Amino acid sequence: MAYETIETRIEAGKVGIVALNRPKQLNALNDQLMDELGAALKAFDADDAIGCIVVTGSQKAFAAGADISVMTKYSFADVYKSEYISRNWEHVRSIRKPVIAAVAGFALGGGCELAMMCDFIIAADNARFGQPEIKLGIIPGAGGTQRLPRSVGKSKAMDMILTSRMMDAQEAERAGLVSRVVPLDKLMDEVLAAAIVIADMPRLAAMAAKESVNRAFESPLSDGVMFERRLFHALFSTADQEEGMEAFLAKRAPSFSHR
Ligand code: DAK
User: Fold this and answer.
1) Contacts of 233 (CB under 8 A, 6+ apart)
2) Is pLDDT of 81 > 90?
3) Is 114 close to ligand 1, i.e. is its CB under 6 Å away?
4) Distance of CA 28 from the midpoint of ligand 1 (Å)
5) Residue 123 to residues 15, 24, 104, 134, 177, Cα–Cα distance (Å)
6) pTM
7) pLDDT digits over 177-216, tens only?
8) Do strands 128-130 and 52-56 pair parallel, antiparallel, or not at all (unpaired)?
9) Which residue among 20, 68, 103, 146 is best mutated to probe the pocket of ligand 1, counting the most ligand atoms within 8 A of its Cβ?
């Protein structure tokens, strides 16, 4: 499929990369981009060769938020009737393979929310995160008021959302918003290395781990632990569980079949 607002490629035969590509608008997110991103993510998710997906932007901007030039024309009736955001912004949440956000530069508003919808964020040392919607007379609307406090705690989330201040990469790492910070010129190398490690893991275990960690955000502890326990039990029916344990005991490298 030919895309106009994103670029896709496959690295090492097993990692799907989606790069947002509206450089003049700092990758501001519009309907076309979100539709194309959704289509690309779903295609990689359905491709058996792919074991991990990376969403990234440019060195200057992961994404500077929803496209303000589009939003400025909307009324309540427009956004409510057309299910603005809900209808095509949350595809990433339905992807079952692990998705890493590789963030350099600005990740603001919907851009920060998109990064938080991914499974984890690796940031370049020039990354800046923020939810500046309040300056536009709105609030974060793609999950920012919910995911940011779960990541960085209530106090810091309130500080960012109410003052609109940006968080730099180091603060984001200290606060737990990002898993690691790497030099800008090493970002894609580091992310690709992590993505290859994940892609080489037994696929069913990686998918189950993702599903179980995400359940921690959606349910009380006892329900989450029960969900984890059931998936843990289920993995004993996979060929890769047998292979992984036999290989460990035989002191050899495992050969996973992803079944
Ligand atoms: N939308 C459209 N264009 C944008 C943009 C954006 N979000 N951000 C930047 N651009 C454009 C600029 O207008 C400029 O275009 P030209 O003037 O060259 O034509 C170009 O990108 C370069 O930007 P700057 O000249 O401003 O570059 P600087 O380096 O000086 O500044 C900046 C970079 C990122 C600090 C600045 O561009 C900026 O503050 N941008 C806006 C950031 C922002 O406010 N983001 C939040 C957007 S609101 C909803 C759910 C979710 C949302 C909405 C509704 N519902 C459920 C209904 C989400 C909302 C948002 O994300």
Assistant:
1) none
2) no
3) no
4) 6
5) 18, 22, 6, 24, 10
6) 0.95
7) 999 999 999 999 999 999 999 999 999 999 999 999 999 9
8) unpaired
9) 68
